[in-house]
Amino acid sequence: MSFIAALFDPSMPFVRNAVLAGVLASILFGVLGSIVTVKRIAGLAGAISHAVLGGIGLAIFLAAKNIVPGMPPIAGALLFAVNATALIGVVSLKAKQREDTVINALWAIGMSIGILFIAKTPGYADPMSYLFGNILLVSTRDIILLAILDVIVIVLAWRFYPQIEATAFDEEFSRTRGVPADTVFLVLLSITAIAVVLLQTFVGIVMVIAMLTLPAGTAGYFSKNLSGMMVSATVFSLIFSLTGLLVSWQMDLPSGAVVVLVAGAVFLLVSALRIRKLA
Amino acid sequence: MEHKVAIRFERVSFSHREVDVLRDTSFHVHEKEFVALVGPNGAGKTTLLRLVMGLAVPASGKVEVFGASPRSVQASIGYVPQYMNFDSSFPISVEEVVKMGRLVGLGRGCLEKRCADVDTALELAEVADLRKRPYAALSGGQRRRVLVARALASNPRLLILDEPTANMDVESEKRLYTVLGNLKKTATILIATHDTGFVSALTDVVLCVTEDGKGSHHVVRHAAVPAEDVPVDLYGSHVVRILHDTDLPDDACCNTEGQGAAR
Q1: ipTM, 2 dp
Q2: Are A226 and B91 in contact (CB < 8 Å)?
């Protein structure tokens, strides 16, 4: 069955959910991804997204053992994301020189905890779908949560655009203008953590960070300012996501991996052309 | 004629990680004065500027700017930083950089497409012709003038420049000093420089950050005399020679002769 036919087939609601999730995720990848890129906190977002596996593993384990019956993986993911964000936030603001070490430790410890819990979970638990995403698992609840987060991110990015731009461009100067740069950073980090948790169903925790940086990086080459970068990155994300979904459907491939490969290929191609032009 | 005090330090001490940076530092400067803050690298000049801007709080003593706490008058201070960790892939135009100077706290800053204060600042810093250019495409000297324009966009009563001519060619230095010369007498100007021999002839007051022999520093007002033997091409402007062996009392500017350090 062709992708278009499947999209309109009433017996296949998961295809429509997948496309809808792709559209909603593109707004987060575009707007939030541009901010994460210009603020150069992609590494922090990467550590949070990987630490989240610990929470997912914990939730699956507790639910399977009937210790917390029916605990959804997303609850464990949020628990670990919040804690990882708090730790990274404190270290970034109070002990910047330790930031690298803490990021790498969180990254590895989070994933290891997740793998241990999943190994000890009775029955079969497949970590692959959490690591690399499975868009066919996107539920209506996920879509509602993504839509709410989209609205929050758009409203905050519009209202506090000057503060976001100023702290990303020159944090010290923004402080001299009375901008609460630490608060801007902590709110951004928290929202990125929540976004990572919600987006991991789409592309998986390993690849969510790629989608937060590749479309924004590609858009950066064509944009005159941060707002233009956000719009272009959203359009690029949309193109990459829909192309990825279409190709993965037609060729029966994992969608998250295809989406990231399309995004990565375009980014590398554009970068190569740009370097050639400058040379 | 009595000039109001722009900056006053009263017995200010400041430590960073248990190391004394400034100890028992007292000085004052008046409004509309052109002040050179002189000292070798690592002497604590940037710390002192941070105290003036309210970005750091003294361990003891009192800092006042325009008779109030520095934080409460942040909006009246324009700052041109020494280093800016600028990512050349950051998409931003000159005009947008200068608009940042209009920002106050969580306000929306300059929302209109054309903002009169931004236009004036671009003209004053002689970068109006660059307004639509990407900031990343500018030379080092042009960038520094754009950052001066950003600082001027808020119509500051106090303009602070940290090592404004570092890594600048003489032509760019000349243009910068022309800009600063045009601003003299309209705002208090405080320039930090590590050149302990000469400062621009625009300077009214020379404040030297001096080591006290125990590792910490304080500020001493020094005299300066015109240095006509130094060619203009060397510094981008006429300069005065700092007389490090001639300390002036802190009230040197307030006596009836009111000569300050250098004219």
Answers
A1: 0.89
A2: yes
